[in-house]
């Protein structure tokens, strides 16, 4: 294994485990501070750090929008306002089980991406992808319902939180796809400007909600009481995971790097266990099914992209012919 693969694997592992730890840690913090303010304050700090890094590395010119301000605003809103506020609000509304549900939804991002591309291009994905999507959906339902059919009779109590988490996850998928519109930009520049604009939108949201007394403005004591959780959320899932993931994907390619997203629910389950949460066999089986579906889809993708023996033979003969001609 060469150094590039080792470095890329380590970076993707750091990002995935950070995101997996994000949900149990945020569950503690959300007992003391409103989810909307928690999301805003977290990324306000991340934005300040990214701005300083971009200024030092690329200078003032890197902050120019170059006529792409509306596009940056859209993707920034989807990634840093819709995703964070909707996911944490839904997680908090569901209670302890929302921690695992949010984590499982996170792992479904590759499948949601496939579904979105299918809708936009009207091109049906391969059969193995459809089978993987069904298996992943079955696993997610096991976790969400905890194997109890009575869940559906009480769906009204969970429908809004589930919808919020799902909308948030879709928001991050849209944000991730937005990077292709800025191919000439560095990862740091795209991350900084979208995070900056998304955080400004979050500021408008919390200001508007507070003005109408929909949410309570946290006092200094409430913010200080979650200083350790907030510090973790800023430095690891907020900053290190974002930069590590993008750097790792570049070294491994998306096809290889996406496998590491499987560590998100694994990390979440381990931390929830040590926090005293009793993980049921249905939640465990459902998590395993989701991970299996993603690995199955990735393995079939690799085999479909691997050149056939006949094509390798043709290439070999062409290479030999060119060498003789020289």
SSE order and pairing:
Blueprint: H1 3-29, H2 35-58, H3 69-94, H4 96-107, H5 109-121, H6 127-145, H7 150-153, H8 155-178, H9 187-211, H10 220-225, H11 227-252, H12 254-257, H13 263-274, H14 281-305, H15 309-325
Helix pairs in contact: 1-4, 1-11, 1-13, 2-3, 2-9, 2-11, 3-4, 3-8, 3-9, 4-8, 4-13, 5-8, 6-14
Walkthrough of the structure:
The structure is a single chain. The protein has helices spanning 3-29, 35-58, 69-94, 96-107, 109-121, 127-145, 150-153, 155-178, 187-211, 220-225, 227-252, 254-257, 263-274, 281-305, 309-325. The chain is mainly alpha-helical. The longest helix has 27 residues, at 3-29. The two termini are 34 Å apart.
Count of β-strands: 0
What integer is the average pLDDT? 80
Structural class: mainly alpha
What is the number of helical segments per DSSP (H or I, 4+ residues)? Answer: 15
β-strand percent reads under 5%
Backbone shape:
globular
Radius of gyration: 22 Å
Low-confidence stretches: 309-326
Q: Specify the biggest β-sheet.
A: none
Quaternary structure type: single chain
- Topology pattern, helix = H, strand = E: HHHHHHHHHHHHHHH
The termini sit apart by 34 Å
Helical residue percent band: over 70%
Keywords: Cell membrane, Membrane, Transmembrane, Transmembrane helix
Protein name: Drug/metabolite transporter (DMT)-like permease
Main location: membrane
Membrane topology: Multi-pass membrane protein
């Amino acid at each position: 294994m060469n150094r590039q693969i080792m470095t890329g694997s380590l970076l993707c592992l750091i990002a995935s485990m950070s995101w997996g730890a994000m949900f149990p840690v945020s569950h503690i913090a959300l007992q003391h501070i409103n989810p909307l303010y928690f999301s805003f304050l977290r990324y306000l700090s991340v934005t300040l750090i990214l701005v300083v890094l971009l200024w030092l590395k690329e200078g003032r010119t890197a902050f120019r929008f170059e006529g792409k301000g509306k596009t940056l605003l859209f993707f920034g809103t989807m990634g840093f306002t819709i995703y964070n506020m909707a996911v944490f609000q839904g997680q908090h509304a569901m209670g302890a089980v929302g921690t695992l549900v949010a984590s499982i939804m996170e792992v479904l991002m590759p499948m949601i991406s496939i579904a979105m591309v299918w809708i936009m291009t009207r091109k049906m994905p391969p059969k193995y992808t459809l089978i993987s999507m069904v298996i992943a959906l079955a696993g997610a339902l096991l976790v969400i319902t905890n194997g109890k059919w009575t869940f559906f009779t009480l769906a009204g109590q969970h429908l809004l939180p589930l919808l919020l988490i799902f909308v948030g996850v879709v928001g991050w998928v849209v944000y991730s796809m937005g990077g292709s519109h800025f191919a000439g930009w560095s990862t740091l520049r795209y991350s900084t400007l979208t995070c900056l604009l998304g955080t400004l939108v979050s500021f408008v949201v919390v200001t508007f909600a507070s003005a109408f007394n929909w949410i309570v403005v946290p006092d200094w004591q409430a913010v200080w009481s979650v200083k350790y959780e907030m510090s973790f959320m800023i430095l690891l899932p907020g900053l290190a995971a974002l930069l590590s993931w993008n750097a790792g994907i570049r070294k491994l390619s998306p096809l290889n790097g996406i496998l590491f997203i499987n560590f998100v629910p694994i990390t979440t389950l381990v931390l929830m266990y040590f926090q005293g949460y009793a993980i049921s066999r249905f939640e465990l089986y459902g998590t395993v099914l989701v991970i299996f579906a993603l690995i199955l889809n990735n393995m079939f993708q690799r085999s479909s992209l691997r050149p056939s023996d006949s094509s390798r033979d043709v290439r070999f003969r062409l290479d030999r012919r060119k060498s003789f001609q020289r």
